[in-house]
Amino acid sequence: MPKEIKKRGRRAEKKRKEERGAADELEQNANYVPITGQTAAAEEEEAEAAYYGDGAQHPNDDSQFYGLLTDEEAEYFRGADEVLESNSFADAAERGLFIANVYREADGKELKIASSQGCSRLLEKLVLLSTPAQLKKLWRVFTGHFLNLVQHRFASHCCEVLFERSVVVASREMDPAYVPDGGLTEKEAETAGDEVFASMESLFLYMLNELEPSIIPLLSHTFASHPLRALLLILSGQPVSSSTSQSLVQSRKKKNISITTDFAPPEAREAGAAIAVPDSFTEAVERIVAAVGAGLDVEEIRAMALHPIGSPTLQVLLQLEMRKSRNERKRSGGGEEVTLLGKLAGISAGGEEEGEEEGEEGKRPSSFFSNLLYDPVGSHLAEKIMSYAPKREFKKLYKAHFRTRMGSLARNETAGFVVVRVLEKLGKDVMKEAIGEILKEVGGMIERGQVAVIKTLIDVCGKQEVDTTEIAKAISDAYNCTPEQLIPKMLSLTPADLTPPPPPNPDDTKEPPKPKRDPKQRHGSLLAQSMLQHPGPLHTLITTSLTSQSSSTLTALSQHPQASHIIQAFLLSPHSSAPDRRRLLNQLRGAWGSLATHPAGSHIVDAAWTATAPPLANYKQAVAEELVKAEREIRESFFGRNVWRNWALDRYKTRRSEWFGLAREAAAAAAAPSSSSLASGVGAMRIGGGGGPGAAAAQGGGQKQQQGERKKTAIELARERHAAKRAASGQPKTGSGSNAVVATAPKRQRVA
C-alpha cells in the first residue's frame, strides 16, 4: 500500500494536529453550521426564491460565455469603427459595400462582438445602418441567446438598438406592397441554401417566447431592465428616443450613438417616431402586463416601487396598463385588485363600488401611496401615475391623497414634483380650492427657492382663465422688497454675479473655469418669464422691477445667462405696453454695441428688432446706428456676426430703402401671430439665432432665391403698372435706355 505523502518538520506536524482536532470537533457537533459563507449564501438564496418565485428562472442561472476575439480580429473591428465614425464615404453604395464586408468578417463572431467591451459599439452602429436582410440575419444569430444577451453589460445595449431599429421594419412589413431596400430577390432567395426567411414580426414573437418565462426577474436586473423597458415601449408603438421615454429607458451615463450621414436607410431615420405595430405586439404587451400584475403581490410591488432599477420598469408597465380603456381594464380586473395600479394605490380597475369602498384591505396600499410621494425614488412613480391615470382613477387619488394636503405637499421638496403633475390635470372648478391651499405656503416655498409649483400654478391659471390677483399679492408679500430689488431677489443675485469677469490673460494658456450654475437662479428666471406671459398684476410686478433698474444694472442683467431671458421675454411679450418698452430701450441706449458681442446680450439685441415695431420704429434706426458704429468689434465676434446678419445691417449701410421695407414687413408679420407663438419666440430665438430680417430672408425668401426670383422694389412695381396701363390703352412704349419699360402681357396664341 503506498504511503501518504507528508511534509517533514515541526510546523507541518503541528498543522496536521490542528486539522485532526478540527475534524473531531465537527464529528462531535453534527449540527454545526459556519457563521460565514454558507449562512449568508442560504439567506441570499431564500431571499431570491421569495422574490423571484420557485418556478422562474433566475437571471444568472443560464449565463454563458461566448469567447473572446483575437487581437487581429479586435484590431480589425476597431478600425472599422473608426471608419464609420469618420464618415468618409462618397455615396450610399460605397457605405453599403463597406458594411457588407464588415458583416462578412463578423460572420460567426456576432455574439463575441456583442459581448466585447471594445467592439459592441461597432455592432450598435452596424445595426443602425443595416438593411432588413442584414437585421434578420443578426436576429437569427441572437435567437436562443436573448435571455443571456439582455443581461450582459455590453450586449444589452446591442439588443436595445436592435429592437428599436427592427420595429420599423416590422411596421413596414404590414404593407403587402412593401419591398425592403437591399432585400433578397426571388432568385437570390432560391439560391440562399437552407436559410429560413421569416418576417420581422415572427422574429419578435420568438424572442418574446424566450423572455416571458423569466420576465419578473428581469424587471429589476441591472442590465436587462433597460432593454426590457425599451422593448415594452417599442411593442406598444411608442418612440423610445422621445424626451419622456428616454429618461425611463436609458441611464444618465448612456452615450447615445447617432448616425451622422445622409446615406442612412429610411428605417433608421424613422426610428424615433411613433409607428403602427402588428396586433400580435399589442397582445404580447397586454400579456406581459397581466403576467406581472398576477405574479407580484402587494409587498413585491411595494418593494419594486422603491427600487432604483425596478421603479422605472414599473413606471413603464403602469403607463401601458393605464392606456387601456375602461372596459378593457374592467375585463382584465375581473372585479378584484389584480392590476398594478390597484395593488399599488388601493384602487380597483373594476366598477365604482370597489373603488369607493374603504375596507381594511385597501388602507395599507393607500397609506403606502401617501408615503410614496415623499420618497426620492417612489415620487417619480407617483408622477407617472398622476400623469397617465384615467379620469376616474385620478379623481379617486386626488380626493384621497391631495385634496386637503396640497399646501403641505407643495412645500415638500420631493412631493412638490408630484403636485406639479396634479395641477396640470385639475379642472377649473377644483383649481380655486387648490389655489387657496397652496397660497398659504407661498412664503415658505419662495424662501427655500422651491418655485416650480408656483410657476405651474400660474401657467395653469392662464390656460383656464383663472384670476391671478391673489397669486400676485402672495408673491409680492413673500419677497417683501422694493420693485428695484425684486428681480435680483427672485434670481438670488449678488453684486458679484452682476460684475463682469476680468479679461483673460493672453499669457495664460489655461482656460478660465466656468462659473457654477445656481438652480435657484434658473427657477427664478422661469418664474419671472411665466409671469410676463399673463396680463394683469403678475406682468406688472416684473415690468415695474425691470423699468426701475438703472442703466448699468440693466446692462449687467442683460449679460447674465439667466436674467437675460427675463428681459428677452419682456421685449417679446404681447402684453408689454409701448411706454414700458420705450423706457427699457432708453435705459439700454449706448450699450447695444457691447451687448451684440456678448453670448447672452446678443439675444437681447435680436429681440429688440421685434420690440421696436411701430409706434417705436424710430428706435429701430437708433439701435442700427449704434451697431454700425461698432461694426469692427461686431464683425470680429461670433455672436456679433449673427446680430449683424439678423439686423441686415449690410442693407442698412448700402440700400437703406430696402432695409426700411424689411422693417415694415417685420412689423406687419409681428402683429399677425397669436400670443402663444410670441411666447414661444424666446426659445426659438435662443436656438435659431434670432428673428430679424436676416433670418426672415433666409427662411421666407429662401424658396424664391432657389427658383431664381428676386423681390421687386416699389419703383419696379410702379413701372410695371404704368406699362400695363399704356399697353391696355394702346399707347406706344415711351422712354429710352434704362428707363424704358416693356409690357409683360401674355402672348396670344396663333389661330389656324
DSSP, total strands: 0
End-to-end distance, in Å? Answer: 130 Å
Indicate the radius of gyration in whole angstroms: 35 Å
Mean pLDDT: 79
Largest sheet at a glance? none
Description of the structure:
- Helices cover 63% and strands 0% of the residues.
- Among the domains are: 71-176 and 199-253 and 267-280, Alpha Horseshoe (Leucine-rich Repeat Variant), CATH 1.25.10; 296-308 and 318-349 and 358-386, no CATH class; 484-498 and 518-705.
- Mean pLDDT is 79; it is low at 25-62, 185-194, 260-264, 349-365, 673-689, 698-708 and 731-752.
- The chain is an all-alpha fold.
Topology:
Layout: H1 10-28, H2 38-52, H3 71-86, H4 92-105, H5 110-114, H6 120-128, H7 132-142, H8 146-149, H9 155-172, H10 186-190, H11 200-211, H12 215-218, H13 225-235, H14 243-249, H15 266-269, H16 279-295, H17 298-305, H18 310-322, H19 326-333, H20 340-345, H21 352-356, H22 360-372, H23 378-388, H24 391-402, H25 406-411, H26 415-425, H27 428-439, H28 442-447, H29 452-464, H30 469-479, H31 483-490, H32 519-532, H33 537-547, H34 551-558, H35 563-572, H36 578-587, H37 592-596, H38 601-611, H39 617-629, H40 631-635, H41 638-646, H42 649-654, H43 656-671, H44 675-679, H45 681-688, H46 693-699, H47 702-706, H48 714-729
Helix pairs in contact: 6-9, 9-13, 13-18, 18-23, 23-26, 26-29, 27-29, 29-32, 31-33, 32-35, 35-38, 38-41
